[in-house]
Amino acid sequence: MKFRSLRFRITAWYAGLLTLSLLLFGVSVYLGLDHYLESSLRKNIGEEARSIGDKVLEDIDKNGEKYVIEETGENYAPEINGRFIRITRQDGSRLYQSNPPKDNSFDPTLVSVNSQPWDSASYRREFVGGEALVLYPYVYSTPEGKRFLIEVGAPYHEISNVLHGLILILALGTPLIVAAAIAGGYWMMQRALQPLNEIAAKAELLGYRNLKERLPLVHSGDEVERLSVSLNRMISRLDYSFQHINRFSADVSHELRTPLTILRGELETIAQQRVSTEHLEMIGSALEETDRLSKIVDQLLSISRLDAGEACREVVRLDLGNLATSTADQLRLLADEKSISLVFNVTPNVFVEADQIRLRQVIANLLDNAIKYTHPGGMVEVSVSSSENVAVLQVQDNGVGIAPAALPHIFERFYRSDLARSRSSGGSGLGLAIVKAICVAHSADVTASSTEGRGSCFRVEWALASGSASFADRPTADALAKVTKSAEQNDSTH
Amino acid sequence: MRILLIEDETKVSNFVTRGLSAERYAVDTAPDGSSGIAFSQSYHYDLIILDLMLPKVSGGEVLKLIRRKDTNVPVLVLTARDSIQDKVDIFEAGADDYLTKPFAFAELLVRVKALLRRGPVNRASSIHIVDLELDRLSQHVKRAGKRIDLTSKEYALLEYLMSNSGRALSRTMIIEHVWDQSFDGVTNIVDVYVRHLRSKIDDGHSRKLIRTIRGVGYAIEEEGDS
Fold first, then answer.
1. How far apart are the C-alpha atoms of A180 and A376, rounded to whole Å?
2. Contact indicator for B13, B38 with CB cutoff of 8 Å
3. Across the interface, do B183 and A310 touch by the CB < 8 Å criterion?
4. Counting Cβ atoms within 10 Å, is residue B1 exposed (0-12), middle (13-18) or buried (19+)?
5. Does the distance separating the beta carbons of A331 and B11 come in below 8 Å?
6. Chain A: nearest CA to B120, how far in angstroms?
7. Is the complex ipTM more than 0.85?
8. Chain B interface, mutation test: which of A251, A264, A288, most B Cβ atoms within 10 Å?
9. What is chain A's mean pLDDT, rounded?
10. Pick the CATH number of A223-307 from 3.40.930.10, 1.10.260.40, 2.60.40.10, 1.10.287.130
C-alpha cells in the first residue's frame, strides 16, 4: 500500500474524522443517558418517598405503627424492587427498615444514619459494601404534627447496567462502522481514481516521438474528464512546439545553405586568381571554416530529421558484431596513427534491426571519439554481446575520460566537455548528439560512464532481433548455426 | 558544349558561370523557372543545371516540363534539401544527378564532366600519372617501376584520385566515394589516409604527385607521362 497515494490519504482522513465523530457521539449519548437515568431514578425514589408519607404515614395515629410497617413492606416491596426504605421517628428511633433485596446487592443495615438536619436533608450518595446507592430523605409531617424521615434508596447498578450495555454497543458498533466505511471508501476511491492511474500510465509512455498519440478520454463529466481533456490539449501544444522547433532547425539549415554556397564559390573563385601564397593561406583557412559550417548545418539537419523520425527508413536485420568489426577496420588507420590498439571482443550472431548507414554511423562516431580522446599507446576495446532481449555494443577506452560534471551533458548538442581540447581536435560538437538521436530513433539506449583520467565507456543497447544468441538460453555452436540458418531462410522467404 | 544554368541566386549563378566558362563551357543563365523553360525550349543544351527552389515555376515543375519535351538532355539538380524523400522525388522527376548545397565547385565540375561524357565511359584498364601506374585489373600500383603495396582503402582512395587527376576532390566527395556517408562525421579520416598514401607514393621521390589544396581537398597531378 502506498502511504502517499491520494487514495490512502483520503481514506485515512475521512476514516479518522468518522471515528472521531462516532466517539464524540458515543460520549455525548453516554453522558446524556447517564444524566437522564440518574435524574429519573431520583424522581422515582422521591415520588416513592412522598407516596409513603402521603398514603401510609398519614393515618399512623388511626392505624397504628404496625399497619405502617406491614403496608410499606407489602405495597412498596423494597426487597423485590431492589429498593432501600427506612422510616425514622422524630426521636431518631427506627420505625421501619427494609430487608436486603433479593439479589443481595447491598445490606440495608449498613446504610448510615442520616446525619444532616432534617430541614436541610437532600439527595446523597453512599457506598454500601461495594454498591453505590442514591438516597432520598423526605421529611413528612402528619396532620397531627408528628414528623418522620422517610429515606428511599436505589442502587446505581440499575443505571450502570444500561450504560454498560450502551458502551458494549458503541464499542462493537463503532469499529464495525468505521471498518465498513474504510472498505467502502477505499473501493470507491479506487473506482474514482482508476481513470487517473490509466491516464498516468499512458502519459508515462508519451515521449516527443509519439506526441501524436493522446491520453484515454474519460467520459465521466467530472474533474477527471476535465483533467484528461486539458492534458490532451497540453500534449497537442507540446506536439506543435516540437514540430515547430524541428521545422525551425530544418528551415534554418536550408536557409544557411545558399549563403554558404555563395561564400564557398566566391572564395574558390578568388583562389583561382593569381594571389600571393599568404593570401591563398587565408582563403584556404576561410574555406575550411565554411566547410565546418556546412558540416554543422548538415548535422543539425540530420538530427532534426532523426527527431522527426524521418531518417531511419531502411531497417534491416544486421549482425552487430560483423558491422562493428568492419566499421572499426575502416577506421583502423586512425588508431594506428596514435599506436592505439583496437581490441575486439565480439559475440557472434547478435542481430539487431536497424538502418545500416545509421548504425554504422553510431559505431564510427563512438570509435572516432574514443580514439580522439585516448593517449598514444592506449587501447580501445569494442565489444558486442547480448543478454536477455538486448544487444549490447560497448566502446571502451583508457583515455582521458570525462569529468563527472560533464558526463550528464555529453549527448547535448554543441556541448563541449573541454573547450580547448575539443577545438583543437576540430569536432563540430554534434557527433554524440547524432549518436543519441540515431539511438532514440531506433528506440535504443545509449549511456556513457567514465572515470576521469582512466577512460570512458559508451554502451548502446538495442532490442535483440530474432535468431540471436542470447545469454538466456545460449545454444551450442552447432545449434546456433542451425538457428541462424533457419532465421536467414525465414528472412529470404519474406 | 553548351550548358543552361537555371538558378535564382545571382551570386551562385555568377560564380558557377565564371567557373564553368573558365573550363571553356558556354553557359546561359536563367533567373527563374519560366525563363528557364523558355531557354530550354529555344536552344539545344548538352546539360541543364537546375536549382530546385525557384520563383514563379518551381524547379520540380521545370524538370517535368523539360522531360516532357526532351528526354535525353542530362539534368543536374542543385538542392538545399537532401532528405531521402527529396532525393527520391528528384530522381523520379527525371533528374540524372543532384548536388546538395553548399558544394565545392570542384565537385560540381566532376559531376558536370561525368554527365557530359555519359554513354560509353572511357575506363582504361590502367592509368598513368608521370611515373605512377595503376592497373585496375590486377589492382597493382607501381611507382618508377617499383611495386607499392596498398591496403584496399588506400587503393580505393588512389584510384579515385587518379581517375579524377588534376582535379581537386573535397573530403566529402572522398568520404562518400571511398567510405560511405556513415563516416561523414568522423573528423580527420581522409587526412590520415591521404597522409599514409602519400608516404607510400611520394616518399623518396623528388616529384610529389599528391597535392593538398587548402580548404578544398586533395588532388593528384594531371594524367599522362611527362
1. 75
2. no
3. no
4. middle
5. no
6. 31
7. no
8. A264
9. 83
10. 1.10.287.130
A212 CA to chain B: closest CA distance, Å? 21
For chain B, the structural domain boundaries read 2-116, 126-220
DSSP string covering A62-122: HH-HHHHHHHHHHHH-HHHHT-EEEEEETTS-EEEEPPPPTT--S-GGGSPPP-S-GGG--
What span, in angstroms and rounded, lies between the C-alpha atoms of B41 and B58?
17
Closest residue to A425, CB basis, from B100, B187, B216: B187
| Residue B123 pLDDT class (50, 70, 90 cuts) | low
Q: Which residues in chain A are contacts of B193 at CB distance < 8 A?
A: 333
Q: Which residue is listed with cell 506543435?
A: A240
Asked if A421 has any chain B CB less than 8 Å from its own CB, the reply is no
Which runs of E-coded beta strand occur in B68-112?
Answer: 75-79, 97-100
Per-residue pLDDT at A484 exceeds 50: no
* CATH fold of B126-220: Arc Repressor Mutant, subunit A (1.10.10)
- Topology, domain B2-116: Rossmann fold (3.40.50)
Chain B positions touching A266 (Cβ under 8 A) are: 11, 15
Q: Do A311 and B83 touch (CB under 8 A)?
A: yes
In angstroms, rounded to a whole number, what is the distance separating the alpha carbons of residues A88 and A109? 13
Instruction: Indicate the domain borders of chain A.
Output: 6-163, 223-307, 315-493
**Residues B134 and B162: beta-carbon distance below 8 Å:** yes
Task: List chain A residues with CB under 8 Å of B189.
Answer: 331, 333-334, 368
The predicted structure's pLDDT at residue B80: 81
Structure-block grid coordinates of residue B224:
599522362
Strand segments (E) across chain B:
2-6, 26-30, 47-51, 75-79, 97-100, 126-129, 132-135, 140-143, 146-148, 169-170, 210-213, 217-220
Residue A386 Rama label (left phi>0; alpha psi -120 to 50; beta): beta
Q: Is the pTM of this model over 0.90?
A: no
Rounded Cα–Cα distance for residues A55 and A37 (Å): 26
Out of 3.40.50.1480, 3.60.15.10, 3.30.70.260, 3.30.450.20, the CATH code matching A6-163 is: 3.30.450.20
Instruction: Please report, rounded to a whole number, the percentage of residues in chain A having pLDDT higher than 90.
Output: 18
